[in-house]
Amino acid sequence: MENVFDILFAHIQKKVSLTVEDQQHIMRFFKPKKLRRRQYALQQGEVCTHISFVAQGLLKSYMLDEKGNEHINLFAWEGWWISDFESFIFGSPAKLDMDAVEDSTLLLLSKDNYDRMLAEVPLMERYFRILYQNSLATKDRRLISANSHTAEEKYALFLEVYPVISQRLPQHLIASYLGLSAETISRIKKKISAQRP
Amino acid sequence: MENVFDILFAHIQKKVSLTVEDQQHIMRFFKPKKLRRRQYALQQGEVCTHISFVAQGLLKSYMLDEKGNEHINLFAWEGWWISDFESFIFGSPAKLDMDAVEDSTLLLLSKDNYDRMLAEVPLMERYFRILYQNSLATKDRRLISANSHTAEEKYALFLEVYPVISQRLPQHLIASYLGLSAETISRIKKKISAQRP
DNA sequence: CGATGGCTTGATGGCCTTCAAATATGGTGG
DNA sequence: CCACCATATTTGAAGGCCATCAAGCCATCG
């Protein structure tokens, strides 16, 4: 089995160059954790005490509305981070639930360790600045898509942007992510496959 | 007239504590610019060469679809930053347009100066990390709202979250921001005012 | 196997868009 | 400062997209 930290550093090195000393320093702030499929990583109402790097597997974060419908906020797979930011930063009760779509391995970073790491390793401050900066650009695009595209356009765009991950997700989760009903995705698929026999 | 930099530093100080030396250092990276109402700050296809701090006034960034409809991505008023991130970071052609809703005063920060400032003033790296982090939490909420709320809920939420700014915006811009037609907002307003005579 | 969860298909209806036209508002130039 | 004209808002009518409800099928897995 590959060392989970190899996966972490491989992703960090894409944005900043860490020395071996930095890496050894940083490792101490993380705590590995395994999650089985369907297991919660966070439940609404709890405080989100850490952000999680996904070394392996796939998780989702979502909001339950008053009718019990799931509205997916984010999928996180290898190389992505996941948390309820608002709760993590401000210590407020989480509005989101998070759970594992597949068996997963996480690296947990507590708020204390996050703050300490950023203070002690300036390159990590930079890493997160760049990470967040890029995430903002992504979310901008998603927001515009949510507000301006039809169901069919949204689904096609999702498949185009996330061709690999879409294969690991059941359709009803993609539907929830796009703000559509599972039935609508089913009908769109049928329509598309009819167009190209 | 108040110094535009006073406004900038007042906002930065909410997140990090700058020394007077830092402030004098930082000032040199910015260039003030005034925009009249309706004037473009950026046009689609150009490269977004700088991010802008809004010292005074109000701007919007938006995307034009193939039918010429405006889909507003962001409003930026005193204390906010505005740019086409993707274009700014990667030097790609901007997908967004930006223009002034009111006469405005900006502080421009070019890509070179941005990079240099972040390298030379670690506290600014921290400032932007925190700024982006908070923006992500905001966008998360907006995305969930876009995908799960009715038109009426979205409008009510907007008024609740941005009571002051909503007064400075024509309704059709709020509609565009929420992914709704101007007519829908008009009808919602009528309905609400009928409920409380 | 039985049961559970996911996918499909049909029928119905509601929310919101679109189109159109009338009215109100407000910025701008004379 | 006023008159004008472009722009914003309102209102009505028609229709389409997509959700909801319901039922049946299919695959997986304990």
TrEMBL record, chains A, B:
Which part of the chain is the Cyclic nucleotide-binding domain? 8-126
Per its UniProt entry, which superkingdom is the organism in? Bacteria
Q: Which Gene3D superfamilies has this protein been placed in?
A: Jelly Rolls
Please give the InterPro entries that the UniProt record associates with this protein.
cNMP-bd_dom, cNMP-bd_dom_sf, RmlC-like_jellyroll
Q: Which Pfam families match?
A: cNMP_binding (PF00027)
Name of the molecule in the record: Crp/Fnr family transcriptional regulator
Organism equals Sphingobacterium suaedae
Q: What is the lineage of its organism?
A: Bacteria, Pseudomonadati, Bacteroidota, Sphingobacteriia, Sphingobacteriales
